[in-house]
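Thread: sanity check for a docking pose with flavin-adenine dinucleotide

Original post by kr_44:
Hi all, I'm comparing my docking run against an independent structure prediction. Below are the sequence and the ligand SMILES. Could someone generate the full complex and paste the structure tokens? I mainly care about where the ligand ends up relative to the chain.
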Amino acid sequence: MTAPAPARTTVGIVGAGPAGLLLARLLHASGIDCVVLESRDRGYVEQRQRAGILEQGTVDVLRESGAAERLDREGLPHDGIELRFDGRAHRIDFPALTGGRRVWVYAQTEVVKDLVALQLADGAPLLFEAQVTAVEGAESAQPVLRYTHQGVERRLECDYVVGCDGFHGVVREAIPAGARQTFERSYPYSWLGILADVAPSSDELVYAHSPRGFALLSMRSPTVSRLYLQVPNGTDPADWSDERIWDELDARFALAAGDWKLARGPITAKSVLPMRSSVTEPMRHGRLFLAGDAAHIVPPTGAKGLNLAAADVTVLARAFTGLHRTGSTELLNSYSATCLNRVWRAEHFSYFMTSTLHTAPEQSPFDTRLQLSQLDRIAASPHAAAELAANYAGLPLV
Ligand SMILES: Cc1cc2nc3c(=O)[nH]c(=O)nc-3n(C[C@H](O)[C@H](O)[C@H](O)COP(=O)(O)OP(=O)(O)OC[C@H]3O[C@@H](n4cnc5c(N)ncnc54)[C@H](O)[C@@H]3O)c2cc1C
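Reply from moderator J.T.:
Ran it for you. Here is the predicted complex with flavin-adenine dinucleotide included:
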């Protein structure tokens, strides 16, 4: 049962993706009241296929918030990834290179299901099919969210508004254009992603650089594989038959020794994902805050999108808790600068992984030699490998 929405709240949260749901959970634990408004229905939000790698810090905060019971049972801890290039395989050992940090394979759909269940059981009001249409009084002491719920127009008075409403959300647009700046980069390729009912052919993720383009072997569970192929922008998934996909994956993952084979199984989903980097600064304007994809987008090569969202709202929840307990706005005032520091590091890492592993349409043999030199350096130097491992497993929150 969905709780009725009050007419006012302390923190109005727009969006029930990982950012909005986790923020609501953390605020609830601190006794701060909030309301979450989500435009889609529950089934849609819980089934939306997206990220699948959780950093150590994300797992830690899910545990602290009481949302990791199933993650601890079903999540798959991973201690490394494999880089494949020039027909060779090289493993990056995270705990050995980072002083014990690792990542978990646990799908975003499952994180969202766990957080929604907790929220509906004992959390603050969470309204599905509640589309926010406007943020009024963005520069006032009492911003108002206007939204439509079950065909009825409603308003919610807030002390603070947090836009956790993703890249196409309304809260960022409510910040006057002159008070924000967006930095962007798009990439000349996309990913064709599939889900397949077959056990993953590797225990760990495999990132492959090949003359035919990038490929990634990932997984959602011990019986479901998630695989990606670099494809040209504008690709229609319908142009890729199942057999063509498997043949291309085989070609890109091939090792010089010729002793590796990808297990095939029924493909249950195909989609094309464009690659983009974007950061909006600052992440706060007056009483409006931005968190997660509402403020920044990364290409998925570094597995950072969901983890950055979790980091933002952890910092923000601590700031609201500080205000609630001591009346100090110090942490709220430093929220944007604290997050942007980490965001730009993740932006660079995601860009680095993307540009090092993909083959651009106009790429010259010189460019390819530079990529291979970089990958060789990571394979040969513990220092270079440690830098990759530290970024991949996740940097400390602050
Ligand atoms: C197609 C796709 C595939 C991805 N794949 C990967 C991947 O493989 N690996 C990876 O690391 N990352 C991936 N990402 C990135 C990762 O999933 C995101 O970074 C993560 O979802 C961010 O969480 P969020 O809560 O900030 O935003 P979102 O998950 O986008 O949630 C925003 C929520 O706000 C709601 N909303 C929007 N507007 C309104 C409104 N006006 N009123 C009310 N609600 C609103 C939306 O319905 C949505 O539920 C992918 C992203 C996309 C879009």
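The first helix runs from residue 18 to 29. Hope that helps with the comparison, let us know if your pose agrees.
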